[in-house]
Design brief:
- The two termini are about 25 Å apart.
- The chain has a 6-stranded mixed beta sheet with strand order 6-5-8-9-3-10, with no helix packed on it. A 6-stranded antiparallel beta sheet has the order 16-15-17-23-18-21, with no helix packed on it.
- With about 575 residues, it is α+β, with helices and mostly antiparallel strands.
- A hairpin with a 4-residue loop joins strand 12 and strand 13 (about 205-210).
- The chain is flat, with a radius of gyration of 31 Å.
- It has helices at about 5-25, 175-190, 215-225, 240-280, 290-305, 310-320, 325-345, 360-380, 385-390, 445, 485-495, 500-530, 535-550, 555-560, 560-565; strands at about 40-45, 50, 55, 60-70, 75-80, 85-90, 95-100, 105-110, 115-125, 135, 165-170, 195-200, 205-210, 230, 395-400, 405-410, 420, 430-435, 440, 455, 460, 465, 470-480.
């Protein structure tokens, strides 16, 4: 084998190995600024904890990797109450919990239901300067239990109060399941994070966290540093929050529309010229449209303006050693644009048959992907419509009796214990119990019952239902987020933000897809360089670029028709050098 082929083969293998480490190698956690060694041990969770007794050293950061091989609520949470540490464990997945044991002794840990138990033995560490020993569990011969025994449901294990926060993703570049994995991975590396759920369809990020260790502002900064734009949902389910997000979605659609119009106006002439020349070669086609410099002038704004949201997110994710579909599109279109730039500026470095530009490919891919995002943004706008309609059911004001007189106030200001007056045709503002009067109420919007329901003194009324025939007074018992309608809104939001277990597998596969495509592109270059026809370097480069451009499902799915306009020429035997328009 010639030296050049050996060098290319070794270089390709080295590149793949480096990228495998780059994307999948261990990454330093954001808050893991520690000196010395880290203690690490893996615990299997299946009917108990194995090992159930763990020895560690005081003062040395501890990393526990829980491999949960079962489902069910019993083992879904691990709690170390003495160290104020807890974590939700995903079913059939590995979850990492990190903390530093700061006191000596034997401490128990258990599941959240206090049914499965284990012991953490913290011993005095070695003197400073001596390496820390890896934590070990007791050997089976020492007569310790490898699996804890269920002893019945006891009181739940105490742990620091967890809080929940929501972020809205509006125009933030989260366009594929790989983006979801990137955000979840970045947030889970923060200390104090209990659970993170990212729902791509509902454009929601829900996180449970320990407020003593991490703040929502830190989470938002980490997400934005990873390359995605979000904003904090301060009052989920409120009219103000939903109105703000609706305004953000409208602004996003306007921005996408402007970018698509610009991209289409600049790309259509280039695509038309290339397709007409490829199929018909009409004499009336203006030669200026086929000029490489003219095409460069048209497509450069498409790369810089229309494709900017894609390129920005793509490079930011690479900076954090991750990759998503934005990364793949960025690499593919820049490879096509860069190759075309070489053909335009220095055509003499390539054989004449390979002086083919790909400007129309880059322009079409970026424009069509942005068009897909616009259609997706329009479709996603409907996910918040259900919440907005539910919020619209609420009464805007309430007539309460205070200091012996009636006054109208916003329904948010109603307090538990207030006496509220409801007249015929008005909505019940909050939940309560009738203390005076009688009427019939339309509760169909809450209960689904089509017939009006008669209510009298002592009966319960539900907020947002409509009073019909009579007037009555009731005592407010549940207000604000405690009302039935508020609970229904919260349940709808939770359903929108939830993720089916199979989605986790899909997200994992998607997170491996982009690096896999890059590996295939490198392998394609090596194979074509070693075994392809001459000039081998050009064939290898062109086909590696083709893999990057075609691989993205967004580009292949939405861009197939306009891009796949080649193949064999008439006669079926002649190879065309543009892989986007043909193949061997």
């Amino acid at each position: 084998m010639p030296v050049a082929e050996i060098a290319v083969t070794l270089g390709g293998a080295g590149a793949i190995a480096f990228l495998a480490w780059f994307f999948f190698g261990p990454k330093q956690a954001q808050a893991a600024q520690v000196k010395g060694n880290v203690q690490e041990i893996e615990v299997t969770v299946k009917g108990g904890y194995s090992p159930s007794i763990i020895r560690v050293q005081k003062g040395v950061p501890l990393r526990l990797i829980f491999d949960r091989q079962e489902a069910g609520d019993c083992s879904s949470r691990i709690v170390f109450p003495d160290f104020h540490a807890s974590k939700t464990l995903a079913a059939f997945a590995k979850t990492t919990l990190e903390f530093t044991p700061d006191k000596i002794g034997e401490f128990g840990f258990a599941c959240g239901m206090n049914m499965l138990h284990g012991s953490l033995i913290v011993e005095e560490g070695k003197e400073e300067g001596e390496p820390a020993e890896a934590p070990v569990s007791r050997h089976r011969d020492e007569h310790t239990h490898e699996h804890a025994v269920a002893v019945g449901v006891g009181p739940t294990m105490p742990v620091g109060k967890m809080e929940q926060v929501e972020f809205a993703i509006v125009g933030g570049g989260v366009t594929c399941p790989t983006c979801v994995t990137n955000i979840e991975t970045a947030l889970k590396d923060l200390p104090g994070m209990d659970d993170v759920k990212v729902n791509f369809g509902a454009e929601r990020i829900t996180a449970r966290y320990d407020p003593e260790q991490v703040s929502p502002e830190q989470m938002q900064q980490i997400i934005e540093d990873t390359g995605y734009k979000v904003h904090l949902r301060e009052e989920p389910g409120s009219q103000e929050t939903e109105d703000r997000e609706a305004a953000d979605r409208r602004a996003e659609r306007k921005d996408l529309t402007r970018r698509i119009i610009a991209g289409a106006i600049l790309t259509v002439p280039v695509v038309f010229a290339m397709m007409a020349h490829e199929f018909f070669d009409p004499p009336w086609l203006p030669s200026i449209l086929l000029n490489h410099w003219f095409q460069l002038a048209l497509i450069t704004p498409v790369m810089l303006y229309t494709g900017w949201p894609i390129h920005r997110t793509g490079w930011l994710t690479l900076r954090h050693r991750t990759a998503d579909m934005n990364t793949l599109v960025t690499i593919g279109t820049m490879a096509a644009f860069g190759y075309s730039l070489v053909v335009t500026i220095t055509p003499g470095v390539l054989p004449e048959s390979f002086r083919v530009v790909y400007y129309e490919a880059a322009g079409v891919i970026l424009t069509l992907i942005m068009l897909g995002r616009l259609l997706e943004a329009i479709a996603k706008g409907g996910t918040g419509e259900a919440i907005r309609k539910l919020i619209g059911l609420q009464a805007k004001t309430a007539r309460v009796v205070r200091d012996g007189r009636e006054e109208d106030i916003p329904f948010e200001q109603v307090l538990a214990g207030d006496v509220v007056v409801v007249r015929p045709g008005e909505k019940v503002p909050v939940d309560g119990e009738i203390v005076d009067g009688r009427s019939t109420l339309d509760e169909s919007m809450v209960t689904g019952e089509s017939l009006p329901v008669s209510k009298g003194e002592g009966d319960t009324v539900i907020g947002a239902t409509i009073n019909q025939t009579g007037a009555f007074r009731f005592k407010a018992t549940k207000v604000g987020k405690d009302t039935m309608l508020a609970q229904i809104i919260q349940l709808v939001q939770q359903a929108q933000g939830s993720k089916a277990p199979i989605q986790r597998l899909a997200d994992l596969i998607a997170s491996r897809f982009v690096p896999g495509v890059i590996f295939i592109a490198i392998g394609t270059f090596v194979v074509w360089f070693n075994f392809g026809p001459t000039p081998a370097l050009i064939f290898a480069l062109v086909n590696a670029v083709a893999v990057l451009i075609i691989a993205c499902p967004c580009a292949a799915g939405s861009g197939y028709s306009p891009l796949h306009h080649g193949g064999y020429r008439e006669g079926g035997a002649e190879w065309h050098p543009n892989p986007l328009r043909g193949g061997p």
